């Protein structure tokens, strides 16, 4: 086991001492600090510490990339600093003082959708696999599909619809639960509210367009009527309803005596929230969501879609640095609900691949540098599997020119993806395995885009490494690579 005592002491000194630390915790690969004075952190010195693979600031937190040994490093840092770690939620709360209004807004999106991502990724893979089973005719099967020839696969296909439907049709339940969790309110009430938005007694959202106005069921309250419409897969209505319930509960806790709060807070928070969700917020949220998805879809399918794809692909990585990329999750899910697929997510997967390719080029350029390899190799692998942070913050931003090469490669790949109209079933694994979430008729086109996202960043990284303006080291300081030795 590595000894991080000296590195922990050095980090404490370079970050400004214990008096500069307001809060500290760690996640899977990073130390996460809220600093009283971020300017006191010496980035150059910190990044020279052997166990540090990079630094960056995001959402008001100063983050130091350690890698898989971060838990061990964190324990040593606690000992030498005398700072006891706090929960991630406490760090997030403390970091808000360093955030702008826009950063706080994007942080909310991140906290809502991050817990849902694993399920959504699994759902996207399941939909892709089911499509291969039920919609792809094979010449070897006489032009028939797998489910039509093999009863066992028909059974498996039917079984897999259970998680597929649970993840996407009942998405509002996950959203309202996540909002309750984020707001510190009663999570079971969030779940119940979500269920009322997708109840079987309501007209399914997917059937609304094909149902005449006269046939839509409704509740008759005498003076007015409310349509009994479900909000399956809808994002904005669920978010509006979830926040309404949370603020109702928080407000009621302040005015209802504690002795009876267990009875009356849930009652007076949940029932009005359900009513307002169906009477007001649901229809408004549906319309807002439709406007957003229509606008994005228009950009993705217009005659200028090549420009949309080029710009989105080019600027997506900088958006990740700012945290603004979290908004894309909501847009992707709304596109899936409205158009049965998303053209946006394939470009995100291509951006991840491009960042990984730039790091791969750096691995080749620095092939004799064992310290650099210890960062570049795992960063390349994780990036190709959809986790970009070690690559972006550990290597690409450190040298800048590979980051620029990746942005250009991502922009070109995104442009081609838009021209080809590549569509995914939903959000998937954001790297090479992302192919499994792409609709099968676009596999060939997406593979072409992946080749662009691999070849262009590698080639440009080699070219840019020879530019004195872009290369901080100077190409003459790099060892000459001897491939295959």
UniProtKB/TrEMBL annotation:
GO terms for cellular component: plasma membrane. It is a multi-pass membrane protein. The keyword Transport applies. One of its GO terms (molecular function) is protein-N(PI)-phosphohistidine-sugar phosphotransferase activity. Residues 107-480 form the PTS EIIC type-1 domain. GO terms for biological process: phosphoenolpyruvate-dependent sugar phosphotransferase system. The active site is at 27 (phosphocysteine intermediate). Residues 5-87 form the PTS EIIB type-1 domain. InterPro entries: Glu_permease_IIB, PTrfase_EIIB_Cys, PTS_EIIC, PTS_EIIC_1, PTS_IIB_1, PTS_IIBC_treh, PTS_Sugar-Specific_Components. This is PTS system trehalose-specific IIB component, Glc family /PTS system trehalose-specific IIC component, Glc family. It comes from Pisciglobus halotolerans.
């Amino acid at each position: 086991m590595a000894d991080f005592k000296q590195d922990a002491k050095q980090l404490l000194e370079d970050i400004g001492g214990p008096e500069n630390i307001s809060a500290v915790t760690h996640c899977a690969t990073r130390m996460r600090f809220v600093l009283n004075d971020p300017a006191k952190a010496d980035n150059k010195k910190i990044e020279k510490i052997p166990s540090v693979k990079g630094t960056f600031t995001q959402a008001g937190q100063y983050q130091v990339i350690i890698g898989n040994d971060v838990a061990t490093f964190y324990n040593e840092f606690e000992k030498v600093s005398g700072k006891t770690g706090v929960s991630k939620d406490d760090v997030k709360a403390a970091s808000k003082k360093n955030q702008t209004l826009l950063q706080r807004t994007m942080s909310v999106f991140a906290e809502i959708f991050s817990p849902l991502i694993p399920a959504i990724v699994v759902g996207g893979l399941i939909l892709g696999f089911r499509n291969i089973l039920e919609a792809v005719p094979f010449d070897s099967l006489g032009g028939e599909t797998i489910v039509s020839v093999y009863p066992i696969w028909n059974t498996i296909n039917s079984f897999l619809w259970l998680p597929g439907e649970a993840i996407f049709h009942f998405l509002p339940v996950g959203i309202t639960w996540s909002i309750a969790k984020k707001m510190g309110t009663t999570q079971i009430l969030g779940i119940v509210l979500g269920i009322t938005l997708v109840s079987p007694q309501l007209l399914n959202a997917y059937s609304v367009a094909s149902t005449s106005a006269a046939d839509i069921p409704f509740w008759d309250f005498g003076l007015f009527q409310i349509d009994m419409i479900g909000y399956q897969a809808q994002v904005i209505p669920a978010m509006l309803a979830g926040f309404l319930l949370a603020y109702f509960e928080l407000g009621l806790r302040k005015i209802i005596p504690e002795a009876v709060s267990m009875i009356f807070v849930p009652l007076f928070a949940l029932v009005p929230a359900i009513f307002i969700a169906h009477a007001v917020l649901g229809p408004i949220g549906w319309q807002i969501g439709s406007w957003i998805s229509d606008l994005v879809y228009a950009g993705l399918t217009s005659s200028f879609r090549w420009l949309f794809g080029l710009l989105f692909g080019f600027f997506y990585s900088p958006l990740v640095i700012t945290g603004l990329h979290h908004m894309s999750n909501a847009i992707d899910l709304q596109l899936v609900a409205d158009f049965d697929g998303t053209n946006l997510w394939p470009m995100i997967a291509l951006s991840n691949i491009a960042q990984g390719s730039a790091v791969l080029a750096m691995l080749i350029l620095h092939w004799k540098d064992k310290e650099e390899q210890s960062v570049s190799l795992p960063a390349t692998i994780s990036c190709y599997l959809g986790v970009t942070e070690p690559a972006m913050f550990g290597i690409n931003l450190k040298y800048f020119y590979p980051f620029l090469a990746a942005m250009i490669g991502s922009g070109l790949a995104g442009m081609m993806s838009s021209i080809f109209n590549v569509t995914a079933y939903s959000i998937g694994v954001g790297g090479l395995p992302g192919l499994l979430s792409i609709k099968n008729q676009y596999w060939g086109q997406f593979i072409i885009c992946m080749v662009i996202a691999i070849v262009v960043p590698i080639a440009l990284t080699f070219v840019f490494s020879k530019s004195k303006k872009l290369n901080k080291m100077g190409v003459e300081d790099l060892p000459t690579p001897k491939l295959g030795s």
